[in-house]
Amino acid sequence: MPASNYILSFQLSQWGYESGTGVVINAGTYCATSTDGSVVGVPNPLQSPVVTTGFTGTLPPANYYVKLAFYDASGFLTLPSPERVIQLNSTGQLIVASPVSGLPAGAVGMKVYISATSNTETLQGTTVGSAAFIQSIPLVSGASPSSTNTTLCKQIANDAIWPTGTGYTVALTDTGGNTLPGYPMMWQLMGPNTTINLSTGLPYYLGTVYFPTPILASPLNHALQSISGPLSLTGYNMLNVGAIGVGTSLPAWPIDVENGAINASGGYLFNGSGGTAGQCLISDGTAYDTPATCLTTSGSFSAYQIVDAAGTPLTQRTVLNFDATMAATDSSSPARTNVGLPAKGTAGTYISPQSITFDAQGRETAITAGSAVNRTCNSNGCYLVLPDGTYEEWGIVTMGTAGGTVQTASLTFPHAFVTSESLTVTGGGQADGTNDAYVVYTTGNSTSGATVVLRCSVNIGGGGCSSISQTVPINWIAFGF
Questions:
Q1: Distance between CA 122 and CA 440 in Å, rounded?
Q2: Nearest to 410 by CA among 357, 461, 451, 351
C-alpha cells in the first residue's frame, strides 16, 4: 500500500558544512509523500480551508465552494485541499485564512480556488506567506487545480557536506504523527544533482567514511592519474604541456583534437597576432597559415563566391572564365581585373543608315550608311528623298480672287513621282475677311501634279457663302514613290 500523505524528516547525523559555501547545516528539513506514495517537496493540504464572510465588496450572494493548494519557491503546486462550502447571504466578500497550523515546510504561499458549484473551482488568486486571501469581486474564470503534486523534495547530497562520513537520520510519520516501523533509519544521499528513486531501494547508510582519492604532484613512476569530474584551474595557467589530447588518449600533436570541432568564439590568433584586414587561414599544402590575401595564393583563386545561373547555383570551379562576349583585362596599377564589353561594330553617328546587323547579344556588328537627306526647292515647291526612296514634297498655292463659291488651280510637283498609285496629297486653307470657311481637296492626282479645289462652304457670321473674293493660301504636302 502506498504511504499516502506522510511526512519525511531529514536530520544530519552531525553538524556539517556545505562544500564551497561555509554554510553550517544543523536543522532538520522536511519532505512528504503524495496520495500515491510518491515523494514530494510540500505535503498536500488535508484540511478544508478556513473561510469567513464579510459584507464589504461586490461578490454576489450565493453558496460558494472553496479549495486551496500550496506552492513552493519554484511555483510547483500541491494537490488541492478538501472542499469547503460557505453561504454568502448578501453582497460582500469571502476571507480565506492561512491554515491554523501555518504553512508547511517548503511552501511559500497559497493558491485559492472558488466556484459556485461543487468540484468546479478555478483559481481566483494567490497569497504570499501566511497572509489571508480576500475574494471581494465576482468570480473570474481561472485555471483548474493541479491533478498531481509537482513539488520536488530536494536535499543536500552527503558528498557535498563536510566532514566526510556525514549521513541523514530519516523518519517517516503518518498523518497522526506515528512513526512507521523500521524508522528512523540512516540514509546517505550521494551525487549532487542526481535523482534518487526510493521505489528501487532505500539508500541505507552504515556510517562508512569515504575519502576522496587525491591527485598527486609526483605519482610513483609517473603513473597515469584520472579525475572523474570537471577540472578548474581558477584562472591559473597550464605550463610545460607535452601534448593535449581532446577525445583521444594517444595525442600525436601538441594539441590533438578528435571526435569534434574546436569552438573558438573569441577568434583565433596566428603566431600571436590577429593579422591584418583581408587575411584568412588558407592551406599551403603543409598547414593552414595566413597568406598576404585571402583571395589568391600562388596566382589562383582559393576563395570565391557562389555563382548562380537563373537563380540556380552552378558547380563551383577554381577558375572563373569570361567568354568572347565579355572582355577581361589585367591592370597592374591599380592592381585589378577590368571586365567590360569588347569592341564590336563601328562607332559613330548615322543619320540615315541603310542597313544595320546585330549579333545574338544585341550588339551592332555592321552598318551601311544611306544617301544623305537633302532638301531641294524650285518654283513649284520643295522635296526630300527619304532613305527608303519615298518622296516628301510640299508648297503653297494661292487662290480666291476669281469670285464664285468654287475655284480650282493646277498644282505642279517640284519633282515628278514614279507612280500615282501610292500618292497622297493633302492641303488646307483659312477663312477670309468675311469669316467664310472653306473646304480644300485635290482631284486628278498624277505623277506630275494635281488639281486643287477650293470650296466656300459656310459663312460663320450667318447665311451661306456666296463668293470667294479674298486671297486664300493653300498649303499642300504630298507623299509617294
A1: 100
A2: 451
Of 413 and 432, the one with more pLDDT:
413
276-314 residue pLDDT tens: 766 777 777 777 777 665 654 444 444 557 788 888 988
Phi (first) and psi of residue 124, to 5 degrees? -115, -25
Three-state DSSP class for residue 222: helix
Q: Where are the domains of the chain?
A: 7-40+152-200, 50-135, 375-480
Q: What is 7-72 written as a DSSP string?
A: EEEEEESS-EEETTT--EE-S-EEEEE-TTS-EESSPPP-S--EEEEEEEEEEPSEEEEEEEEEE-
Grid coordinates of 444: 486628278
3-state secondary structure of 238: coil
For residues 386 and 372, what is the distance between their CA atoms, to the nearest angstrom? 9
Give Cα 32 to chain centroid, integer Å.
47
In the chain, the amino acid numbered 78 is T
- Tell me which range, 121-135, 211-225, 257-271, 423-437, is most confidently predicted by mean pLDDT: 121-135
Best CA proximity match to 319, nearest among 296, 341, 339, 335: 296
Q: Which residues contact 212 (CB under 8 A, 6 or more apart)?
A: 164
The 3-state DSSP class for residue 160 equals helix
Amino acid at 72: D
pLDDT at 259: 85
The CATH number of the structural domain formed by 375-480 is 2.60.40.3940
What percent of the chain is modeled with pLDDT above 90? 43
By three-state DSSP, how is residue 221 classified? helix
Q: How far apart are CA 451 and CA 442, in angstroms?
A: 5
- CA 156 remoteness from chain centre: 44
Using DSSP, state whether 247 is helix, strand or coil. Answer: coil
For residue 291, what is its C-alpha cell? 597568406
Q: Are 383 and 357 in contact (CB under 8 A)?
A: no
Render pLDDT for 446-474 as a digit per residue (tens, 0 to 9): 999 999 888 877 666 666 677 777 777 88
Closest CA to 435 of 406, 463, 409: 463
